[in-house]
Amino acid sequence: MNYKSPDDFLKSLLEDEEQKKIIEEISKDKSPEEILETIIGE
Amino acid sequence: MIEFDYEIIRDEGDEVVTYEPDKIPTELPNIVYIEGPNSSGKSTLLNIIALGLYGLKNDKLDSNLKTQINHLVNSNHQELTFNLKIKKQGRTIIESEKPDGDVSDIKVYEYKDGNRTPIMPDNFQNKYNLIYDIPQNPIDRLNQLIKEIRNTQRNYKKDVKYFRKYLRNTIEEINSSRNPKLISQKKKEIKENEKEIENKKAILKKKEETLDQLEKYTYSRFIRDYTAKCTNLHEQIEDLEGKLEHKERTKKARDSKLGNRIEETREQINQIEDIHLELSDILKSVLPDEEKHHLDIWNRISFNDVIETLEFEDDLEIEVNDLKEIVSKKIEEKDEEKALTKAEMYNGLIDFLEDYKIEDILVPGVEKDVNEFIEILETKAQKYEDTLNYYDNLEKAKSHLNELESKISKVENKLFPNIRNLKEKRSEDYVKEEYRDYQNRLESKRELLEEYDKKLQKYEHKYAKKALDPDNIEEIYSDVIDEEEISSYTNYTEKELNQKIKSLKDQIEDIEDRIKELEFQIEMDKNKLSSLKSEEKHKYHNQREEIKNLNQKAKILESKLNDEYDKYITKLIDEDINIDECESEEERKYYEKVSNYLGNKVGFIRHGQEEYQVEYIDLIKNVIKTESGKEIMLSDMGTGQSQSAYLKGLLNTNDNRKIIALFDEVAMMDTYSLNPIYEKFKELYQKDQLLAGVVVQKADEMNTVSKMEM
Predict the structure, then answer these.
(1) Is B590 in Cβ contact with A13 (below 8 Å)?
(2) Nearest residue in chain B measured CA to CA from A34
(3) What is the count of structural domains for chain B?
(4) DSSP E strands: which ranges in B47-147?
(5) ipTM for the complex shown
(6) Pick from B643, B680, B675: which is nearest to B661 by CA?
(7) Half-sphere exposure of B210 (CA within 13 A, CB side)
(8) A19 touching chain B per CB within 8 A
(9) Higher pLDDT, B672 or B398
(10) How many domains does chain A have?
(11) B60, B131, B152: best mutation site toward chain A, by most A Cβ within 10 Å?
């Protein structure tokens, strides 16, 4: 993976898709409510 | 194009000096190299551009640089005003200004379709990436990239922790919200308990009816029995009193040897009489109807005159023989083993089914539910229990009759002849002994009468408590004995009947207690149900398990960020790693990823005359590995080359924000080292990812060079 930001670096360490998703949503400055909504809604 | 203008009015103690851009052109190409002597305004220009693009609010900017920038606006001895525009292809993209020297506020605008709109710091940083750096010690600055990872990890740890707190709160909210599954479960429990109450009440009713019948039967039966026994005893007492009166008149002394023999005989006769009496009760329960007439004869046998006449009534011997024969015959007919096996089987089945009686299950074959089936089994078990009692009493009767026969034989064949011999030598004492014998018998009969009378009173009291008419005892008895319910109890002895009544009362009390317990439970469940129904259903109710799993994963993530990853990156920063002593494969992989990350960030390096694509930078071994397989020790890299690698690392981002890059004091970098930077600037500019790239260098002469074309 061609990761160039610390965020992407962090995601590259994780194997679990939901853990990656949590990091991804946090990186978008989403609130906990929005993060849960996004993950559960999918 | 970068257009700028500024004015710094500085109080230098002895005079107030105004500084304006006089050496550097106020219009610069978007990619530009500026060199010049100290105090020519190079750093001031970069500081003003950074200040104008919210540099003081940018977390990634080096703190020393921020101090310099801050000095521009927050010093008492100087006032700054400026205007800055960054244009591309003739159109203004961003404008920043500080029109008032007294106020530190900076105004930043974004242009769209020729109209300018204010843009706030957060929004600015989402859209633009200000990079401002002085790459003095490139190895240390690579470490800065590592520290950036640690800061990022720590920030994420806080956010994940906060997210987990939210998840836990959400789970708690779901748990305390309306729960259809729980409501349904509660309804089912109430229904099951109501059904059990219904069943219990039916059983209770039946047992109460049986108890009522059994009490009527028992009390009326024994009032009749003890009344008859008391009447009989009264008659015997009257007879003995008459005989005693007669003997009193004729009493004479008898010799002591005869007296001893009479005493011994009397004791034997008393024992015979006790056995006879006990047999009366037993025989009543074992004799078949066609043999019941023996009971009348048996009860008429008296022992009052035996000592005087020295013989038993003829009926005694006849009846003992007849009854032995009847009882033996009944014993031969018995099938006790089979009854015992069946009784055990039924009781075993009842015990087993007791655990399932609240279930709505039909027993196959009989098509009854468990409660009804238990009732059938209890009736059957009762029948075999009765049979076993019956056999037990038969054995008792046989044993008593044998004992009676043995004792009668002993008295008749040994004691009576002995007394007769002694009587021939009649003495005064004989009369005396006869007199004493009557007295003893009278006393014994009176005691027995007292005992029977007490029992009679007890049964009359119980009978009265049932509000039965004392004048209708015979009627009650004859009615109840015809009841089918009672038929199996007519062979029971007094003790067995009273035990049965007590057992029934205990069972009834247990059932009543259970019903009360169930009613209380139902009341509580209904309250709970009402409370459950009044609650709102949570919007994530159906995702409860999913959220719990997510929380579990977030917990693991938080732990990784807080413990493992933080420990690994700290070791890397502290240069405290021996790769051969890594605690886990995960730790080894972590360092591998860090090396790859640094490689990605730097992208290309120049070493000697060649340019290489970097595969990874290993800060543990301090080596750069290129895609072509070349390994270059960091210590072998020229400082300029290292600086170049570092700056390219800064420019290698993967977001879409437009970059404004400001690099100062690149003194150690020669043309070979700087060219890759300009190449990167141009590449980004052409991709519309770079708005401005300014490289500043110290030199003796002022010189500004466009790097738009090379």
Answers:
(1) yes
(2) B163
(3) 3
(4) 78-88, 91-98, 107-112, 115-118, 128-133
(5) 0.96
(6) B680
(7) 21
(8) yes
(9) B398
(10) 1
(11) B152
Instruction: Please name the helix (run of DSSP H) or strand (run of DSSP E) that holds residue A23, with its range, or none.
Output: helix A17-27
Domain boundary among B79, B103, B130: B130
> Of all helices (H) and strands (E), which one includes residue B33?
strand B31-36
Structure tokens at B351: 């015990």
**Rounded to two decimals, what is the model's pTM?**
0.43
Touching A: B residues 542-581, CB under 8 Å:
543, 546-547, 550, 553-554, 556-557, 560, 565
pLDDT tens, position by position, B371-423: 788 888 887 777 777 777 888 888 899 999 999 999 999 999 999 998 888 77
> What percentage of residues in chain B have a pLDDT greater than 90?
44
Q: What is the mean pLDDT of residues B335-364?
A: 75
A36 lies within 8 A of chain B by CB = yes
With respect to residue A7, please indicate whether it lies within any of the assigned structural domains: no
Among the partner-chain residues B149, B166, B654, the one whose CB lies closest to the CB of A4 is B654
User: What band does B344 get if pLDDT is binned at 50, 70 and 90?
Assistant: confident
pLDDT, tens only, B15-56: 888 989 988 999 999 999 999 887 788 889 999 999 999 999
What is the spatial distance between Cα B346 and Cα A25, in angstroms, rounded to a whole number? Answer: 68
Residue B368 bridge partners (DSSP): B363
> How many H-runs (helices) and E-runs (strands) does chain B carry?
21, 18
- Determine the structural domain holding residue A21 and report its residue range: 15-41
When pLDDT is averaged across residues B67-85 and rounded to a whole number, the result is 88
CB contact (8 A) between residue B593 and residue A26:
no
Mapped onto helix, strand or coil, the DSSP state of residue B365 is coil
pLDDT at B401 (0 to 100):
94
Determine contact, residues B666/B675, Cβ cutoff 8 Å.
no
Asked whether the predicted pLDDT for residue B253 surpasses 80, the reply is: no
Q: Across residues B605-614, what is the average pLDDT?
A: 74
Q: Mutation test of the interface with chain A: which of B162, B584, B600, B601, choosing the one with the most A Cβ atoms within 10 A?
A: B600
Cα-flanking dihedrals φ and ψ of residue B577, to 5°? Answer: -125, 130
Distance of alpha carbon B697 from alpha carbon B323, whole angstroms: 139
- B89 lies in some domain: yes
Q: Evaluate whether residue A6 is within a structural domain.
A: no
Which helix (H) or strand (E) segment holds residue B277: the answer is helix B256-286
**Of B151, B149, B153, B156, the residue nearest B598 (C-alpha):** B149
Note whether residue A2 is domain-resident: no
Q: In this structure, is residue A3 part of a structural domain?
A: no
Same domain (yes/no): B464, B327? yes
Show the tokens assigned to B349: 């089945």
Shortest Cα–Cα distance, A30 to chain B (Å)? 10
Q: Which residues of A touch B593 (CB under 8 A)?
A: 9, 12-13
Bridge pairing between strands B362-363 and B128-133: unpaired
Q: What is the rounded end-to-end Cα distance, in angstroms, of chain A? A: 24
Q: What is the nearest CA distance from B595 to chain A, expressed in angstroms?
A: 10
Higher pLDDT: B337 or B470? It is B470
Same domain for B591 and B445? no
Q: What average pLDDT is seen over chain B?
A: 86
Q: Which of A40, A3, A36, A9 is nearest to B167 (CA)?
A: A36
Confidence of residue B137 (pLDDT cuts 50, 70, 90): low
Whats the size of chain A, residue-wise?
42
Domain of residue B679, residue span: 584-706
Distance (Å, whole) CA A36 – CA B538? 14
Across the range B458-487, mean pLDDT stands at: 89
